[in-house]
Design a protein that fits this description.
The protein is built from 6 helices and 13 strands. With about 210 residues, the protein is an alpha+beta fold.
């Protein structure tokens, strides 16, 4: 349940605020900083937050993808449409706190939240989990892991890499660049499937209305 609502009158107020928000509604035209510039600055320090644009113009629809906007709503806003978007946003927030895996290392178990994992890298039998808290290493099989993470937002772009689609920033036929700047090679035979999967992921987790 959403417990806290606040209104900030400018983009600058939002950037400087010490309050912690899960869902941010932004207009495009705002004083001090416009909505798009505000979103770019905000994304640099809070990637996981949900950004929803509200505008009377379609002009910035495609720019919204650059800041991973969850939705782009056009004014005047239909009440049923807004309710639907909020329900999807809350479901996404709830899933963030629940999805995790348990891995074993040196007779100990460790819980790792999926949303905090950038990608898995296999080297022989050694698995490196690259995440927001650094690298965690254990013995594993990437094929088994790939099967267990189906429909969880991960894609095996190469025999050695299983990436979190959430963190994909730029890609081409040779590589995928993540939001943290790391470059992951993509196998030629997996490129077409990757394009379909990243599009499906975007439609499932957000979009434009």
């Amino acid at each position: 349940m959403l417990e806290k609502w606040q209104v900030k009158c400018s983009g600058q107020e939002l950037i400087q605020s010490s309050d912690n928000f899960d869902i941010i509604f932004l207009d495009i035209i705002m004083r001090d900083l416009d909505g798009m510039r505000t979103a770019h600055i905000f994304r640099e320090k809070a990637f996981e937050k949900i950004l929803i644009f509200i505008s009377s113009s379609r002009e910035y629809v495609f720019e919204a993808y650059d800041v991973e906007a969850f939705q782009y709503l056009l004014k005047p806003i239909d009440e049923k449409k807004l309710k639907k978007v909020l329900q999807k946003a809350v479901l996404k927030l709830e899933s963030h706190s629940q999805e995790f895996i348990i891995v074993s290392k040196e007779r100990q178990k460790k819980k790792l939240f999926l949303d905090d994992i950038y990608y898995f890298e296999i080297k022989g039998r050694i698995m490196d989990i690259h995440g927001t808290d650094g690298i965690f290493t254990y013995y594993g099989q990437i094929g088994v892991l790939e099967n267990s993470l189906q429909e969880k937002g991960f894609f095996r772009c190469h025999k050695s890499y299983l990436i979190n689609l959430k963190y994909v920033d730029v890609y081409n036929r040779q590589e995928i660049i993540l939001d943290n700047g790391e470059r992951i090679v993509i196998a030629k035979r997996r490129y077409e499937e990757f394009c379909k999967e990243i599009l499906r992921y975007m439609r499932k987790n957000g979009g434009i209305i």
